[in-house]
Structures are given as C-alpha cells and as structure tokens.
Amino acid sequence: MKRVHLIAIGGAIMHNLAIALQRKGHHVSGSDDAIYDPARSNLKENNLLPSIGWDESVITSDIDVVILGMHARKDNPELLKAKQLNLNIMSFPEFIATESKDKKRVVVAGSHGKTTTTAMIMYVLSRLNIDFDYLVGSSINGFDLSVKISDAPLIIIEGDEYLSSPMDLKSKFLWYNPHISIITGIAYDHINVFPTFDSYLETFKKYMNTHVSKGQFFWYKNDIHLQKLVEVSLCSNMAYDTPVYKNTSNGSLISYAGSWYPLEIVGKHNLENLQAAQLVCEQLGVPGDEFYQAIKEFSGAGKRMEKIFDKNGQVVYRDFAHSPSKLKATTEAIKDSFEGKLIAVFELHTFSSLTKDFLPLYKDTMDAADHAIVFYNDAIFEHKKMEYIDASFVQNSFGNVEVMHFTSDLENIVNTSFEQGDNVLLMSSGTFQKASFTFD
After folding, report:
1. pLDDT > 70? residue 383
2. Residue 375, SS3?
3. Among the four residues 148, 206, 236, 280, which has the most C-beta atoms within 10 Å?
4. Is there a single domain that holds both residue 413 and residue 287?
C-alpha cells in the first residue's frame, strides 16, 4: 500500500484516479483551490473531499508519491514543500505509465475521436468479459469511473497530446510507450501550448516513435498529415479506411465479411473510429464478427454524439465538439443521417476557440446545417483574461452563421425551431451558460 497525495484533485481525471487508487487499497489524500460537481460529489461520496485551499502542512515525508494535476501552478505551496522534502513527484500520465509498465498497453491518439474510439474498445472488451484497466477522458456508460488501476494484464488509454503538468511540459501520450495504438487524424488544436501547426505535428511525430519494439499503430489513410508523418515513422503501421455502411432510421448498418451489422451510432467519422477499434480488438484476439455483435448497442461516450431526444423522426444530439474538425464532422454526420432541417449551435468556450488567430480555422465548418448559430457570453473574455472579440469578427471567421450573446435569445430560437420539428445539434465543452432548452 502506498501513501498518495494528489495536488489539484478536483480535475476530471484526477478525482477519478484518486477514487481508483483508494479502491486498490492505497491511502489517498488530495487538495485543490476549487472543486465543482461532479468531482465534488464523487469525492465526498468516497470520503476523499478535502478542505478547499492549498496547505503545505499536508505534505509530509511519509508520502510515497505526489501526483501533480495540470491545474496547479509552479509556485503551488504544496508542490514547493514536496520538492523541499525531495518527494517523488509525478504527473498523472507518468504515474499511469509507471503503474502499467508490465501490462500490454493500447493507446488511442488523434486530434478528434479519441474518447469515442477508446470507449468503443472498452465497451466490446467489457461485453466479452475480458479483464482490462483503462484511462478515458469522459464518463462511459457501464463504467462508474474513467480510470481503473488493478492487476489486469491489459490497459486501454486515451492518449491526449496536451501537456502533462506544470513541471512536465511534454505531451501526455509520450509517456505510454504503446504496444498497439490508433491515430484517428490530425487537425490543429491547443493553440495555447502549440503556437504553430508545425509544433503540433512534431508532437505526433514523436508519439509515433514511442512505441515499443515490434509495436504497431493504425492510422486513418485519408488524413493528409498522417500520410506525410508515416513516411518518416520508425514504427510498424497500417492504414484503415472508411468502411462500407448505410444510414438507417435507427442508426447505421456496417458491412463486414459479407454480412451487415446494425449499429446505434451514426456519422462517417464515427464509423471510421469504429473501424480502427475493430482492428485493435482483433489484435487483442477478438474476431471481427464477435466485435460487431458486441458493439451493436453502443450509443457513444458521455456527451460525444449523444442522442438526447428521438421521437417521430425528430432527433436532438449534443456533442463535446469544440475544434474545427469536430464541428464539421459532427454537423455533417447529423445532417447526413437524419431527414429534415437541422439547427446546429456551437458555444465558443475554450481558449483556442476564443483566439483571433484560431477562429478563421472554423470557416465553413457548420455549412451542413440549415441554420447555424455561434453563441458566446461577452463575460467569458474577462473571466479568461483574453482580448475581446466582437460579433462581426466571429461571423466573418465562420461564414454562414448567426452570432448570439444572450442566453434568452438562444433559448427562444432553439426551442422554437424544435417545436417546428427541426433536428437540433448542440456542440460545446461548456454549458451554454446553463440555457434552458425544452425537448419533449
């Protein structure tokens, strides 16, 4: 049993990791300067909710490892005390890498589709009663935590390219040294830590060469950036393509080995993710027909292409989409999969999406919608200490969209469109300022 302290325990992954470590029998403590639900409730339920604020007195010499979350700053008093005591300080990806060094490691990387593809693999392995650990960036139906650390011989990891911690500025996925992995595609993201697209490409190039000896990765063959990077990759790799599929009123049909398999998921990009997941599961000993039988009721990861209403031919979806490639893929998927008009709404919420240099990359990404709305609250610029961007700049960046600032206006248009029978797509990594949409 280890004594583990998590600085910034309130993070989405960090609080799940804390609970997972406690379940494994470790003595766990943590701290944060703010903790919000669902982390707050989850920690409280597991008797892990700390007092709010940093307190260097909780850092003592008997701590075996301090896990540092990205939210903490370099001058955090607990971090400084841990350094003074020469304690073992790790980022969470470094800790996961250490815990999984004797396991077979499967990593899912890429600018988009990571969570969904990881969830697909987890779903199938679980349905087939195959024991595995995991780390995934969202809640997944059938799994009460987004992290599991046990004695399982296999771990499935969502490999994020974002930075590991304030002390460890390399991408998280560079820690994992996979045996098998997927790269779903590359589209510029995280402009706050990758100031140029070349620097963003470079971290994926490094990732390709972190695989173990005789490791292999699968990559989407129509991605032009991956096509170039694999030419200089030192690792064995295999491209995958869009599978043969049909849209149906209830989801999709996918063709495999001469048979058609029904699916609940929709969208060309999701079916490409599914193709990659199937190839990985095949490497893990799951025959293709068993994979497609097992996956047929999979409906998506939490808030990723999640259907929240479906009645009389009218649907409402919500999606965590925030980057240009995600907006385009998700909007096109819903429009192509369902008849009728589509109203698509996107909330500018992340650092990248509120940056003048990045906004023009959204050009035409919502064109598939019959009515596209971009929403943001002016107060977010002050909250994030960023330069204000006016509506005309946003409108010119996106193209054919309507720009809104006020929640009440957004609620009125979305609810009215829904009442008229339009399909609705809500895209955000935020909450639309807690707007009240009425779908029934």
Report:
1. no
2. strand
3. 280
4. no
Q: How far apart are CA 340 and CA 343, in angstroms?
A: 10
The C-alpha atoms of residue 251 and residue 203 are separated, in whole angstroms, by 36
What single string gives the DSSP state of each residue in 88-107? -EEEHHHHHHHHTTTSEEEE
Which strand (E) or helix (H) includes residue 368?
none
Strands (E), 276-433: 306-311, 314-319, 342-347, 371-375, 402-404, 423-427
Average pLDDT, the chain: 90
Range of the domain at 35: 3-87
* pLDDT for residue 312: 81
Q: Are 111 and 325 in contact (CB under 8 A)?
A: yes
What's the pLDDT at 384?
65
Question: Whose CA is closest to 220, among 105, 328, 109?
Answer: 109
Spatial contact of 433 and 377, defined as CB atoms under 8 Å apart:
yes
Same domain, 312 and 379: yes
Mapping DSSP to helix (H, G, I), strand (E, B) and coil, where does residue 250 land? coil
Least confidently predicted of 130-134, 149-153, 311-315: 311-315
| The predicted structure's pLDDT at residue 320 | 81
Domain total of the chain: 3
pLDDT at 338 over 90: no
3-state secondary structure of 127: helix
In a domain, 439, yes or no: no
